[in-house]
Amino acid sequence: MSATQAILVLSLLHGQQASPPLLSEPVIAALAEELSGENAHRVVQQLTQWHRMRGSEGFASATGHIRQELEQYGLEGVEVWSFPADGEVFYGTQRSRPAWDAEFAELWELSQAEDGSWKPEKRIASWEARPISLAQDSASGSADAALLIDVGAGTSLEDYRGKRIPGNLVLTSSQPGAVSELAVKTFGAAGVVSYAQNQRSAWWKMDEDLVRWGHWNTFPPPATFAFMVSLKQARSWQQRLARGEEIRFDAEVRAGQHPGSYDIVTAVIPGSHPQLKEQEIVYSCHLDHQRPGANDNASGCATVLEVARGLSKLIREGKAPPPLRSLRFVWPPEIEGTLALLNGRSGWAEKVLAAIHLDMVGGGPVTKAEFHITRSPKSLPTFINDVAEAFGDFVNRQSALYADTGRAAYPFASPEGGREALKAAMVDLTLGSDHQVYSEGSFRIPAIYLNDWPDRYIHTHADRLANIDPTRLLRSAFVAAASGYFLAGMDTASAEKIAVLLQRQALRRTSLLLERMEEVPASEKANLMRFHFEFQLAKLRSLSRFMQVPLQVERGSTRFLQSLHLTVGGGRFPSRQPDMGGGASGIVYRRAENPKGPMSAFGYSYLGDHLSRRKLPQPRLTGYQGLWGNGGEYAYEALNLVDGQRSVQRIRDDLSAIYGPVPLDLVAEFLDTLHKVGIVER
User: Which residues neighbour 503 within 8 Å (Cβ) at sequence distance 6 or greater?
Assistant: First the structure.
């Protein structure tokens, strides 16, 4: 590297780091001053009152509260978009799930009186006191003086051999849905008691008092009920059962599925440009969850509301210019509601240029959560993630300075919150929330995903308000608000700012590329290099979704990448050519027009259902473990890469560059299976 190149590298990596990125100083200052972690914290407190299952009374109450707040804040276009959900209607690959409500549920342990009768002694579970203790989608039912029968995992016939199951309650380590076929349908259990330990992390099983969220399968409708108990409670019963003791219960449940709807409250800050106002930047979260569900996901919903309040107020007061494009805010049920939006709202998906999705963004130190700014899939190169990372890096530096010295121009600290440095991690795609729907190959809407991970209280009764940090909410709101507001206001003059940002990020990513190349066989190194630089070039070209990129900007950035490619020994700069080849590896697929959406949605797997109907085996790719990804990630990206241009061989090569080397035959088999079920066409 020449001295001139070295100076350029240093200036790109370290230049302008003391100044706010992308937006003007007055706008940054206005956002930092206006956004309130305490205000978002207050909304979290309100939302945690309700058990917010899709289509339920609790969800309706939460939706009504959000709507009331939006109207009070003066947002425009406040309304509720409603989509039928009855188990029959499909929204792309999502089979709509009927609403579910519970009226009453209690589980009582009994003791035997002197006359031999059984009487209630200890209430183990109560819907009113702790709704998470009733598994989601439970049906009405009862049991009188029923025995507790330990069936272990309960997923094999051996678990039931020689046990008195009919009319009794089975104790299982599995989710209720996993034991339904054997425990209930085959052996006649009256109900299920589960201590399933979900959400594996470093803190898994450490707190034995946690009651975790349980689920039946939605389809077919469950025939009975299930209660969820802590690991500590289950172990206590197991010790008593091992001593030969009989344990009996009374149970009563009044609950069940019913036709309903996905009701999604929305509001808009309209764009000011006559044509561009039809384009939208959407802020998303998921409003549904078990009570209390403070971090997951009252925190994201409250923060989106605070972004809407803060931006609309600043624009109304003239402290921030109105955006060119419109800013849309939505509060759907997780994944299934987003699929209803994108498939059921005619023409809406085509208007959305980018999504900013917030799911768990308020975790305080006790949760052990690290704040992530998560990128779109590599199959969808986009500059918008670099925008979010620029603002995240700014908050990292300012909050670290404040934590170290007590002074910073922008401390981003709430009066009632913490003072720690943010330390946001900029990470590649992780699946598990609505961002993956927007970015899926059917819609190709790039997404910024803000999220905490891990959170040791996720999906438990302890995910409560006390664990939420107003400072974390404030910082999440700033990154989200600044990112979306910048994207909504981008014009041709913004191209140079983004080009410089992309060059700086390309240097960082290229250093990571060189590290990754040490982890793969020699035969894969050239493929990694090719994909990396094609990806950097595609990120630059993604600007064209927002504007006409000036020719000098495109040429200058291309020359920079060519120089960087040469510097790291890349040889000839990659130039995308049509795929050639014969046999299975040369087949080119395109995505069928319908259905739209990922193969596994929420409570329903489109692929699994259609494999079962056609008696086809599960493709091996879905269980493959690579260097940097698992089977679900490989399968998600493999379908995303189907574009009518890439051959099977090229898809295999791109997948290998993203998640690590994968055998060609696994990719070919997966795509052939998708062809058989009508997802892709040759």
Answer: 12, 557, 560
Looking at residues 279-298, what average pLDDT do you find?
97
Residues 6 or more apart whose CB falls under 8 angstroms from that of 14 comprise: none
Q: Do 478 and 391 form a contact (C-beta atoms < 8 A)?
A: yes
pLDDT of residue 601: 82
DSSP state of 134: B
Q: Does 3 have pLDDT greater than 70?
A: no
Rg (CA), the chain: 27
Give the residue carrying structure tokens 């894969």. Answer: 524
Q: Which of 248, 251, 252 is nearest to 111 (CA)?
A: 248
pLDDT tens digit string along 576-620? 555 655 677 899 999 999 999 999 888 899 999 999 999 999 999
Is there a contact between 471 and 44 (Cβ–Cβ < 8 Å)? no
Q: What is the largest CA-CA distance in the chain?
A: 95
Which sign does the torsion angle of CA 648, 439, 616, 681 carry?
A: negative
Measure Cα distances from 572 to 186, 239, 556, 564, 568 in Å: 64, 68, 18, 12, 12
Residue 411 CA from chain centroid, whole number = 28
Q: For the segment 247-262, what is each residue's pLDDT rounded down to a tens digit?
A: 999 999 999 999 999 9
d(CA 669, CA 657): 19
Strand residue runs (E) in 71-153: 76-85, 90-91, 94-95, 99-112, 118-126, 141-150
Read off the DSSP letter of residue 97: P
For residues 76 and 511, give the distance between their C-alpha atoms in angstroms, rounded to a whole number. Answer: 46
In which element (H, E) is residue 199 found?
Answer: none
Helix-helix angle 300-316:57-73, to 10 degrees: 20
Q: 181 near 156, Cβ under 8 Å?
A: no
Q: Judging by beta carbons within 10 Å of its beta carbon (0-12, 13-18, 19+), is residue 515 exposed, middle or buried? A: exposed
Residue 146 main-chain phi, psi, to 5 deg: -80, 140
Q: Cβ contacts of residue 622 below 8 Å, gap of 6+?
A: 631, 632, 634, 635, 670
Q: Are strands 191-194 and 225-228 parallel, antiparallel or unpaired?
A: parallel
In angstroms, the CA 494 to CA 545 distance is: 13
Q: What is the pLDDT of residue 580?
A: 53
Tokens 């014969």 -> residue: 582
Two structure tokens written together for 670: 């997966």
12-19 contact pairs (CB < 8 A, 24+):
12/500, 12/503, 12/504, 12/507, 13/504, 13/507, 13/508, 17/393, 17/397
- CB neighbour burial string for 417-446, b if at least 16 within 10 angstroms, e if fewer: bbebbbebebebbebebbbbbbbbbbbbbb
pLDDT at 46 over 80: yes
For residue 571, what pLDDT is reported? 77
Alpha helices in 318-460 (DSSP H): 336-344, 348-351, 384-405, 435-438
Q: What is the DSSP letter of 493?
A: G
C-alpha distance across the termini of the chain, in Å: 46
Model confidence at 110: pLDDT above 50: yes
The enclosing H or E element of 558 equals: helix 551-567
Phi-psi region of 300 (alpha: psi -120 to 50; beta: other; left: phi over 0): alpha
Report d(CA 669, CA 648) in Å as an integer: 10
Distances (CA, A) of 386 to 22, 488, 501: 11, 15, 7
Rounded Cα–Cα distance for residues 138 and 319 (Å): 51
Q: What is the mean pLDDT of the chain?
A: 95
Size of the chain in residues: 682
Provide the pLDDT for residue 8: 46
